[in-house]
Write a structure and sequence with these properties.
27% of the residues lie in helices and 26% in strands. With 879 residues, the chain is an alpha+beta fold. The strands form seven sheets. Strands 6, 7, 8, 9, 18, 19, 20 and 21 form an eight-stranded antiparallel sheet that branches. Strands 10, 11, 12, 13, 14, 15, 16 and 17 form an eight-stranded antiparallel sheet that branches. A five-stranded antiparallel sheet has the order 4-3-2-1-5, with no helix packed on it.
Length: 879
């Protein structure tokens, strides 16, 4: 697909659109369910299709026949149910598409239909799958046939104004981003009382039949709401409720109550959805009624947040009058939802939201605030260094982390901020201008979005007039404006507050940890039987992981031999003795000595330009992330390790160094130099490797030693390495670990080439591939590379001052050899006439050049020290 076409398309999932039904010559309205140019959807679909095709090829003819029979049976049952429902709907006057209509996608079960549509095959690259508002119907339309009606934006969404791409295709550095502060909607609704009397109308054709309202209420205050128990110790979310229905008999106008225990036995007229709501007509027993009021009686609550750790958990099923509902100033309703409105007689009446029109209040990075139609904007992904007014930050330098401040404004051209620094003990703030975005960092615990629910972290700070829980509704310099649940309002410093997190929130990096652990467990279980069978009669070497890490701190030899070859020879000799028995040990001493010498020479392995071995086996471990992992090494695993070592000794690419340890043969460490012409150029990246019991039937574990902020989408600060070959990312089968074919060398080459060798790593972030060719994609990729190159230089500086013993000589030689190249590259970046170095397409900003100059100064000081040492060495030699 031509990614340049993506730029021109202004239709996204959840957009409200309209189109002309040419057969019936009428306007239809719908919500976008899927779009063909969503690259992530396409990738998943293609992979799923390919896997299905492979499975079908492996199936027998008999199985294929059975599947076809089952499908025929399912189709017959489906068509039978469909015909029955359509006839019932026709008798009830409900509008639907008949068999001859091109929009014939009606299904009995909406959820089943939605699931089918997730695997919909688009007819073209510009197809859009639309869910009609007036009926449970999905239809594919062409992009050009659709008109954008409304776009729902959510609080804290990052947006950009829609604009035409520049002729050069290069993003405009002045094109700032905005953040959604609040939304307001105009609702076009159909009262249920009107629909009950006009069941044959075509919804949406006559706007005069709808009411246009600026405000509607939810059906009950408990709809998916946060609540608190009466003692104010535990918070939960309502996940369901039972309700009594106050109804009026249509035959005799008598009022009555249908208790919650009998609500399941009512039949709501087919013109409506299945949710009871005032104004809907129903059948109960032999009588017909109209619903007047819905009265929640009992709630189902997921209690998940404890304000008092010692509090007893409330019952999950609780009466509605035994909870306190959170007051939410930011709640809104969506299309298709049942709502309440006050009619001209002052009575609350039920209605269905058919259309909406949305305005958004946007806080722009330059400090301005506007309210505009949501259709003027497109949601975009921001970078870690994209700051917005109100963001709380602190200095990046460790020795300056004694203060915090609030972003007042941000200049996207210079990449600098104006910051209001908080002065402890004072109400006012001190402003500082032109602060580089690379010299500050986001202070997570102090940042809150408008609409967040909070409470004070110290009960002694709670004002007498205030409630325990409140909602963030605004900002005033360094303070937040809180509406407490009892209506009291207060300005509060952010560090005195705690966020009430949502019950389904997950930490991304913790999730990645869980995914990796799950994979390891699955592989161990999958191959457990195979390993048990293979290892029954083999010897085992137990490694005691509980022993103290009392290790000899042995430095790596700086010369080429360095003793590594001898250790490898000893290991191989021990292994052979174990495998072939005592006969092998009866060789004559001279023959044995000669053989060991030959093996030692053979095991010298590849050397780098400085004569240092790329692969080397050391005696003990200095520091390793997996040192405490319990492990039983079998002779079979030792054979595999021997094969891996042989391959590593002769095949490591330039810039990759590996160290093994005779103390624990299943642990290795790797140092990889960042490839040239990438933002990781000349950077130093160190990884710990662990070979599990069931290796090579399961992939190794790899831990990344992070010494900066996150500098690659696949390398996490917590050490996770996201790679299909390691099972930590769900790639296709060809990219995953394949026992008998995959090996450690492949893993190292993949990290060097696929991770560190990727020139625009921004697009490796999950979901960002769809931004290829877009303006926001080019902008973000360029700015991302700016930040990453600074972090790469930081890794170089860190390891210059903190050289791990096992890689000390490698790091020293690398810095000595490449320091002039690094300075030359810095000069190229500082010379603003150079363009598109490292795929940095935007002109270098002031915010980028400032830290670059600081780093250049530090690197020059290293070069100066090196030159001074060389002078001393020469003087000593002359003496």
């Amino acid at each position: 697909m031509n990614t340049n076409e993506i730029v021109e398309k202004n239709i996204f999932k959840e957009d409200v659109v309209s189109f002309l039904d040419v057969i019936n010559n009428r306007i239809e309205y719908g919500v976008v369910f899927r779009v063909a140019w969503d690259l992530d959807d396409i990738t998943d679909e293609d992979e799923s299709d390919s896997e299905e095709e492979e499975e079908e090829e492996d199936d027998s003819d008999e199985e294929d026949t059975n599947e076809e029979e089952e499908e025929d049976s399912e189709d017959k049952e489906y068509n039978k149910k469909k015909q029955s429902v359509m006839e019932e709907m026709k008798r009830s006057g409900y509008t639907y598409f008949d068999e001859d209509n091109e929009f014939d996608h009606l299904d009995v079960d909406e959820e089943i239909l939605r699931e089918k549509c997730k695997h919909h095959h688009f007819k073209s690259d510009t197809g859009v799958l639309v869910h009609l508002i007036r009926a449970p119907v999905y239809t594919e339309m062409e992009y050009e046939q659709l008109t954008l009606v409304d776009r729902t934006l959510y609080l804290a969404d990052f947006v950009q104004r829609i604009q035409q791409p520049q002729p050069t295709g290069i993003p405009n550095s002045n094109h700032q981003l905005g953040k959604v502060l609040s939304t307001r909607k105009q609702y076009s609704v159909y009262p249920f009382s009107f629909l009950a009397q006009n069941q044959n109308i075509h919804l949406g054709q006559d706007p005069s039949q709808m009411l246009h309202l600026d405000h509607v209420d939810q059906l009950t205050p408990f709809s998916n709401s946060l609540v608190m128990n009466k003692s104010k110790t535990v918070i939960g979310r309502v996940i369901g409720y039972q309700q009594d229905l106050v109804v009026r008999n249509l035959a005799n106008n008598r009022g009555s109550i249908i208790p919650a225990s009998e609500v399941d036995y009512i039949f709501i007229d087919p013109v409506f959805d299945s949710n009871p709501c005032p104004g809907k007509t129903i059948t109960f027993g032999k009588d017909r009624f109209v619903i007047l009021t819905v009265v929640p009686t009992k709630l189902e609550v997921n209690w998940y947040y404890y304000l008092d750790e010692n509090a007893d958990p409330p019952p999950s099923s609780i009466k509605s009058n035994q909870v306190i509902v959170f007051s939410d100033d930011y709640q809104f309703s969506v299309i298709g939802e049942n709502v309440l409105f006050v009619n001209s007689n002052g009575i609350k009446e039920g209605a269905m939201v058919f259309l909406t029109k949305t305005w958004c209040t946007i806080s722009w990075q330059d400090g301005t605030i506007t309210e505009e139609l949501s259709t003027n904007f497109v949601v975009v992904d921001s970078l870690a260094t994209d700051y917005f007014p109100g963001d709380v930050v602190e200095p990046a330098e460790v020795d300056e982390k004694t203060k915090w401040g609030v972003i007042n404004s941000y200049n996207p051209t210079t990449r600098t901020c104006s910051i209001l620094w908080n002065i402890p003990g004072r109400e006012d703030c001190a402003e500082e201008k032109d602060v580089s975005v690379y010299s500050i960092e986001y202070l997570v615990d102090y940042n809150f979005d408008e609409s967040d629910f909070v409470f004070k972290n110290d009960s002694a700070l709670i004002e007498k007039e205030a409630d325990i829980v409140g909602q963030v509704v605004g900002r005033d310099k360094c303070r937040l404006l809180i509406n407490w649940n009892n209506g009291c309002q207060e300005k509060v410093l952010p560090y005195t507050l705690c966020l009430i997190e949502d019950d389904d929130s997950d930490n991304e990096e913790e999730q990645n940890d869980d995914d990796q652990d799950d994979f390891d467990i699955e592989n161990e279980e999958e191959d457990d039987d195979q390993d048990d069978d293979d290892d029954d009669d083999e010897g085992e070497w137990e490694i005691n992981s509980d022993s103290d890490n009392d290790q000899n701190q042995q430095k790596e030899e700086k010369s080429g031999g360095g003793g590594g070859g001898g250790l490898i020879s000893n290991f191989i000799h021990s292994l052979k003795s174990l495998l072939v028995g005592d006969d092998h040990q009866q060789e004559q001493p001279k023959q044995q000595e000669k053989k060991e010498k030959e093996e030692e020479e053979e095991k010298q392995g590849d050397l780098d330009d400085n004569g240092i071995q790329k692969f080397q086996l050391l005696t003990s471990i200095e520091n390793h992330a997996y040192y405490s992992e319990k492990m039983t090494i079998t002779t079979k695993l030792l054979k595999t390790i021997n094969q891996e070592f042989k391959l590593l000794e002769t095949s490591l690419p330039k810039g990759v160094y590996v160290r093994g340890f005779s103390e624990k043969m299943n642990l290795l460490q790797a140092l990889i130099i960042g490839p040239e012409d990438t933002v990781y150029e000349n950077g130093i990246f160190i990884f710990d490797i662990f070979l599990p019991n069931n290796y090579p039937y399961a992939p190794p574990k790899v831990f990344y030693h992070s010494v900066t902020y996150k500098l690659h989408p696949n390398l996490y600060v917590n050490g996770n390495v996201c790679l299909s070959l390691l099972g930590t990312w769900h790639g296709n089968k060809n990219e995953q670990w394949q026992p008998g074919f995959s090996n450690l060398l492949q893993v190292l080459i993949s990290i060097q080439g696929l991770i560190l060798g990727y020139k625009e790593p921004y697009f490796l972030e999950a979901g960002y591939e769809s931004q290829l060719g877009t303006i926001i994609g080019k902008r973000n990729s360029s700015l991302y590379n700016e930040e990453v190159y600074l972090l790469t230089l930081e890794t170089l500086m860190f390891y210059n001052n903190n050289k791990p013993t096992v890689f000390e000589s490698i790091i020293t030689n690398h810095i000595n050899d490449k320091i002039k190249d690094v300075l030359t590259r810095l000069d190229q970046l500082l010379d603003q006439s150079n363009t598109e170095i490292f795929k940095i397409t935007l002109p270098p900003s002031e915010g980028f050049l400032k830290p670059l100059l600081k780093l250049k100064s530090k690197i020059q000081s290293i070069e100066k020290l090196k030159e001074e040492e060389e002078v001393k060495v020469n003087e000593n030699e002359n003496e």
